[in-house]
Amino acid sequence: MNTKKLCIWAILLFILAAQAYSQPNWVKVLARNASYANAHEDASAIILYKRADLEISKRGYATTHNFIACKILDEDGESFGILSQPISPFLKVKNLKGWVIQPSGESTSLKKNEIITMSNEMSTGYYDDDHVVYAAPSNVEPGSIVAFEWKTEESPYTSLYNSFTFQIQQPVILVQFKVKIPKGWTLLKSEWNLEHIEFSKNGNTYRWTGKNLPYQPDEPLSPSWHFLSRFVRIACFDTEKKDDPHFENWRMVANWISKIHDKPAQPDQSVYSKTQQITAGLKTIDDKLRAISTYCQNEIRYVAVELGKGRWIPRSAARTVANHFGDCKDKTILMRAMLKCLGIESHSVMANNHYYVDPGLPSPYQFNHCLIAIPSANTINRENYSQATVAGMIFFDPTDQSCDIGELPSELHGARVLVCADHDTVLYRLPIPGSESTQRIFYARVLLNENGSFHAKTKVREIGSFASQARLRNRSGSKEDQIENWLAFFSDHLHGAEISNLAISENADTMTTTFSLGAANILQRAGPLVMFRPDIFMKSLTSQLSASKRIHPIWMGSPSQIKTHVEWELPEKWHPEVDTTEIKNHCKGASISSRTKIDGNALIVKTAHRRYGKLMWQDEYENARSFWNDLNRVKEQTAFIKTE
Amino acid sequence: MKRMILIVLVFHLWGLFLSECQAKDFKWAAVTQAEWAVQEDSARGIEDAVYLFEKIESDERKLISEKCYYTIYRRLRILSPEGRSWGDITIPYVHKEQKIEKIAARTILPNGEIVPLPENQIYEKDILKSEGIKIKQKAFSLPRLTDDCIIEYYVKFFLPSAGDQWQFQKELHLLKGEYLWKFYRGYNLSGYIYDAIKDYYTPNYLLLNFVDKKMNVRQLPSLKDPHEVLFEIENIPPFTPEPFSQPDDVLKGQLRCYYGGTVPPRAFWGNLDKELRDGFKEFTKKNKRVREVVKQFSGMNDIPAKVGRAYQWLQQNIVNVTYEDDSENYKENKNVNDVIKHGYGTSSDINFTFYDMLREMGVDAKMAYTTDRDENILIYQVKYWQFDRSLVALPNNKGQYSFYNPGGKYLPEGSVAWFNEGTVSLVVGDMSQSFFDTPCSPAAKNDIRRYNELVLSEDLGISGKSLERCGGHVARTYRLNLIGSSRDSKSDYLSKKYQEQYKDCEFDSFKTRGLNDLSAKVAVVCDIKFNKALQPMGSRILIKPCDYMTQCENPFTAEERKYIIMFDYAKEITEGVRITMPEQWRIEAVPVDTTYENAIGRVGITFKKMNEGRMLAVQKTFSINIPMIKPVGYNLVKTLFEERQKYADMTVVLKKE
């Protein structure tokens, strides 16, 4: 090669290198204008620009060109200087580039050694091939602007379902999501909190644009950030072609799942033998059902193998019996196979135990969990399963060890689930137990001594989800563990508490725990006054509704009820007084009522706190505040005794 | 084509041969009745599962060629449903550097049935990948696990270096442990060369943290000509971490195997002393610039003044690159002249220069080396380099040494970092002994005073000003985090720190003083607002004054203590809060003052009603006199913290007029 050619090569290489390391125009423009971007004083970063251009090819491949630029405002905001992009065997990252621009104008490019790929899940007994690519430039600090540009390529298995989040908490200057689908295809969308996002459609291109989305403050008693965030989920399909995966409606989704679930759910000899073994001697179908559900729930250890398409395709029932382990779908399949051995046909049910499932967006990728539906016609005592029965089907989660058949874990209360049968099916809504069905009732009879020590005989009755949790603790932990749990419950407000004589009994859906409770001193003394909090079961509130204005809705918790009843016998000649003998308040989300009765040296306090599982909106904030104040009064209620 | 077939055939046969060899390599041990008889025993720490045995073999016979084999054979008995999680095994390794040659595992059911792990149920994945490094993992779950089965697995690694440590104390009780060390005996070296290096390549070992346990040590095949050493230990209880301890890895029972000299420890440290002195000579040989600098101080007769000037000069004129983000971009200093010429140096360079300056001025300074006690402790019997940091030692009038560390940023003269206090330092060149204690700073030097001047408003909110003044290690922490930071970063740091210390508060308008003057206290002033308003109880309000001070917890709730209690440093904390009441509220009653003192420290609280009950003044004190306390002193520590915790609920009563 002569010198001239060498020079040309050198110049070409230099141009290529310069292109790779210099910022593209979009970053330069942002850097110039970013100094004008002001934000809320609590904001940690400003999302200056976020854009994803998604294009689906006719063959179903999805290519997304992503852009993001943030201005870091404080040390907490430095986390926004790290890009994290999940990848999987179906989704690859290409051409990842990044830049950091300091307030001085100095700029650096993302280096290779600042990109790390890490496994998404490190826990033992969980085998998957999901990873996350992290790009973490080392010189990010408050004042820096960090920008990334990258492409993702997704193969047809998952590419036809996608989501894009416009905003969670930090302010956003400009955000855009663009989707282009092939001609003749249909796009379905599910939008959440998009009231400030403009939508437009031009031919087969769909575009959502948001500008100047303000900071979302962190307010007490708010719903989850997922609920408050703004996002869109889309699914698309070729209207003409009906090949898999093609999800035009829920029936197609149900058929697709049923196709991959039904075959593994065929029992073989080993499953027959195991079923016979665990149901031997049991006469009623209900007893057999209980034995099988307990076996799948407790004997089959939770171990997940979610490799490649194995994340959707369950292992055969025979394999799960042989391994004695499996994940949610494996447990479901085994239970279906065992029921088949008894002549009972059942169905796999898809659910999401974290997020809301949108009925307008038929896609298997909205789900992350699998349960079983058993026709209740097969059972004798149907009322035992009423809390978990919908449309003649008993729903059961063989993965959750706290719930017996007839109960559902609280994260599935009210969830939309898909019964995967090859006939017509719809999304069903699982029942939400009312506050009467989820109760914790405390009772104590307390003897207080002049030196401040006390001794109480205590009884706690738990029903519904409270009972499920207590049952799991009781089955999996020792008596010492239970005592530790209760001591932890009292640790914040009853210092130095001691527990003895603990006994636990299970009766249908109720758990009853009794124990002796005592402490060396429960009294506070100031001058001639002696004080104590008569409701030993009430913990102080950890959050306050002190702000004068409210932006987010208020969530006071899922339906439940906590009742306390404490009877005190004080030293003779001690005549307690309290500021108010009765406090009552209620709002849409909850209610409280507390009554204190004093008779000589006896004091009785009774309290009932109900949560209704209803969101309260901004215009109900004053009611919520007033309620919260009274709840605080009840929790801080103090009895005074004048000793001089 | 024929050639291709031949190659494939050879590879296939080679594979068969290898797998045959590997199978012969290892045999499962027979399960004994005694192993089936093992039951849960909480008194011995046998709960959920137990290691029936662990057998490790470290084959370092070809160490010089970087071909070592390390095998792990573990057998566990599952004893409860919770114990089943021990059947999920993960084995991480560094791709290309390390290799897993074989994995075998099986479950043995109580009826004797054996369920082997199918090979296709061993899953491999990348757990971390970046430029030049890939960490992979092989993982599996044992099949057919029950609550009372036995599981066992065998893993054989190929490693380029020796496995130097056997940590036999684990999360579970270990009934029997074996470590077979096939040490290096001269493979691939001529007898002549091996004899020459033998004195530096002799196998050494040391048992740590379980000196009261009997470890059987057998040299095989004979004591006269050992090729390998077998270590056996029994009944090791599980490790239980304790708060305010040294790092777990330092405390766990372990065996360290390494190659070193044949000489006893005393001689090893003596030799090291000599080697280090030769190194110092080399680094300080060219020191013209040092001599020029110390000429400036020639008028001083007083040694402390000379020491002080030299210390100050280095801190002011030499950039400490150890604390710079881009330290790798600085050219290495070859000698003390370079340090002064370049105007920068690592912490060690700066300490060497200080040492040389003092010696040039006729001060008998010595270099010293020590460990960071938050990471490591020095073990005299272990004959290899264990130090984390250099210091400079000056003899004092008590026959001991005072230690200096000008290479530690913002350390005032005569101080060392808190994690070097209370350690043992090697003082190089001391003729009488090698090791000396590095003293701890007194509590009074690390004082913290916090005062909150607050007002209770008509709507029962509490807000006001907060002032903190501190010295010693606390002040240094502020300096390390705040000097050179922008105003916003300073506010961020302080706000985060205060948020951690106080309960549900907002802070604003942070100001600092005394950061740049190392001899001064650091002061932080800010506005403080407590988010939780007080709630009247009819005609009364209850105030817990400690809610308006930094929050305290008692980490010492356990009945007993096994390991040394390690605080960062001795300290004295005084916290005061003064609250002015609104017009219609007066203080009705205050708790009585109280104090408690023992050999470890002191706590106390006082309450004052001022201005006819319109103002409340509360002062709380807490001091720890000794940063490191042996377990025998645990009850004193526990009582001290329990007494302090009682203050949290002390209540002042206000009454509406």
What does this 3D model show about the protein?
- The complex is a heterodimer of chains A (644) and B (657).
- Chain A has 644 residues and is of the alpha+beta class.
- In chain A, 21% of the residues lie in helices and 37% in strands.
- In chain A, the strands form nine sheets. Chain A has an eight-stranded mixed sheet with strand order 5-4-9-2-1-11-14-13.
- The longest helix of chain A has 19 residues, at 3-21.
- Chain B is an alpha+beta fold.
- In chain B, the strands form eight sheets. Chain B has an eight-stranded mixed sheet, with no helix packed on it.
- Chains A and B meet through strand 6, strand 29 and helix 12 of A and strand 3, strand 6, strand 7 and helix 11 of B.
- Strand 6 of chain A pairs antiparallel with strand 6 of chain B, so a sheet runs across the interface.
| Pair with the biggest interface | A-B, 54 and 57 residues
Number of strands of chain B: 34
> What's the Cα radius of gyration of chain A?
30 Å
Task: Give the CA-based shape of chain A.
Answer: globular
What is the global morphology of chain B? globular
Helix vs. strand class of chain B: alpha+beta
- C-alpha termini separation of chain B: 107 Å
Please state the CA-atom Rg of chain B, rounded to the nearest Å.
32 Å
Helix fraction of chain A, binned, reads 10-25%
Beta-strand content estimate of chain B: 25-35%
> How would you name the oligomeric state of the polypeptide chains in this document?
heterodimer
Separate helix tally of chain B: 12
Mean pLDDT across all amino acids of chain A: 92
> Which percent band covers the strand fraction of chain A?
35-45%
Structural class by SSE content of chain A = alpha+beta
Task: Record the SSE blueprint.
The complex is a heterodimer of chains A (644) and B (657).
Chain A (H helix, E strand, L loop, with lengths): L2 H19 L3 H9 L11 E12 L5 E11 L10 E5 L3 E11 L5 E3 L5 E5 L6 E3 L2 E5 L9 E10 L1 H4 L1 E7 L4 E9 L4 E8 L4 E6 L2 E9 L11 H4 L1 E9 L11 H13 L6 H11 L5 H15 L1 E2 L1 E3 L10 H7 L1 E2 L1 H14 L5 E5 L17 E7 L13 E2 L2 E4 L19 E5 L6 E3 L9 E10 L5 E10 L1 H12 L2 H12 L7 E10 L2 E10 L4 E3 L2 E4 L21 E2 L4 E10 L12 E5 L3 E10 L2 E10 L3 E2 L4 H16 L2 E4 L2
Parallel strand pairs in A: 1-11, 7-17, 16-18, 25-32
Antiparallel strand pairs in A: 1-2, 2-9, 3-8, 4-5, 4-9, 6-8, 10-15, 11-14, 12-15, 13-14, 19-20, 19-23, 20-22, 21-22, 23-24, 25-26, 26-28, 27-28, 29-30, 30-37, 31-36, 32-35, 33-34, 34-35
Helix pairs in contact in A: 6-8, 6-9, 7-9, 8-9
Chain B lengths: L1 H24 L7 H4 L12 E14 L4 E12 L9 E7 L4 E10 L5 E3 L6 E8 L2 E9 L8 E10 L5 E3 L6 E9 L8 H7 L4 E7 L7 E5 L7 E9 L11 H4 L2 E7 L4 H20 L3 H8 L7 H15 L1 E2 L15 H7 L1 E2 L1 H14 L5 E5 L18 E7 L5 E4 L19 E4 L7 E3 L9 E10 L5 E9 L1 H11 L4 H15 L3 E9 L8 E9 L9 E4 L21 E2 L4 E10 L4 E5 L4 E4 L3 E10 L4 E10 L3 E2 L4 H13 L5 E5 L1
Parallel strand pairs in B: 1-10, 15-16, 22-28
Antiparallel strand pairs in B: 1-2, 2-8, 3-7, 4-5, 4-8, 6-7, 9-14, 10-13, 11-14, 12-13, 17-18, 17-20, 18-19, 20-21, 22-23, 23-25, 24-25, 26-34, 27-33, 28-32, 29-34, 30-31, 31-32
Helix pairs in contact in B: 6-9, 7-9
